[in-house]
Amino acid sequence: MIHPIDYRYKVDELEDYIAPNALMRYQLRVEIAYIEALSNAGVCSNIVFKEYEEAEKRVKLDRVLELEKTLKHDVRSMVEALREQVSPEAKPYCHLGLTSYDIVVNANALIIRDVTTNLILPALKGLITRLINIARETRDVVQIGRTHGQHAEPTTFGYVIANYIERIGRGYQLIQDAQSRFRGKIAGAVGTKAAIDIIGDARKIEADTLAVLKLPRVEAPSQIANQEELANYYSQLVILLGTLSDLANDFRQLQRTEISEVFEQTNDHQVGSSTMPQKRNPIGWENIISHYKTIIPRLITSYLNIISEHQRDLTDSAANRYLLAEMLNTFLYCVIRATHLLERLGIDSKRMRENILTNDFLELAEPAYIILSLHGEENAYDLVRGLAREARDTGKSFKELLHRNESFRKQLESFTTAQKEVFEDSSKYIGGASEITESVCGLWEGVLEESKND
Fold first, then answer.
1. Which residue among 87, 180, 273, 439 is the active-site one?
2. For this structure, is 291 an active site residue?
């Protein structure tokens, strides 16, 4: 227990997929699928295949690890542990004609497929569903928009969340697509299927093995496969984790004392600071950002792993072991934590309104210049910019200065009712925020429902 994943950030559900015993089971699954294909091809009998099916259940990780101390080869140790469980007549067919990475490539593809299908996509669905609920609840809650850290013009909190629904939803689809691109191979030491050709119809044996595993075939593999697919898959995880970190950073900033528009609802016993009893820190959101910083360099490793001398070298071996565990665990941990944080999210709509009022109607500058321009004022932008500067310099209300302006007063009579309302209450200046929010929520509800039925 020397890695933080082990004792602090571990996602327990991953044990069933990437713990040493689980990894061994996936590799055994590939071996058994291959022996089934040999049986179908008449290379060995169905009795031999059935013997291996039963033997697989008796293979123990402790025995594999014991053998590895002598053999210094993890896959061969697994093969020998399996062979120990079958009769002398069946022994020759285990791993016959295969190379280690006929096993590893397929096992890793299966692991990623299962983790994605059973853990990652459901976790993302839960996150998106929670965001949809928040967006709907706050579609009409007006909040000041911010660009470059400065107050801009009004938006709604629901619309802000809709932006993240769209972005995270796209990430969900891209991860789903990246996972579907993993392929398998049963092709021997340099990928030519020469050893399997001695045994039987190599193309058919490979096809039958991969059919059992439900993996498409790499048409021209070397000893290895899927390095580009791995890099693409990990890229999609990191990109979506970046989007999640952007959301985390926004919520962290909105919890600043001088903003205070959202907060994390904590229990009575939670401590914010070891020395300042009054603190209520955004530690959950900061933790997600910290994990994002941690995992970004790992992505470079997956790109470096694309390089392998000639048909195979081992410079990616240890790196891929780290990547599989760290990428999957870190991503899942952050998605789950974000969902829990959103379930405890407090939204202070009163504070949002107070923050808008601190502008003293300066947020009306944009609609003012646009409407004046539409009514024929040729220097509308400069006119309004001057009024905004005067409001800042003198402390006078921008709204008051605007209504004193002769050009503005002259045009006011011809304004529509909706235009006039904007200049009485800037919360009316939110465009289609509410409608777009509802549209986005409906769209992604449909996507999630459709994916559930796939």
1. 273
2. no
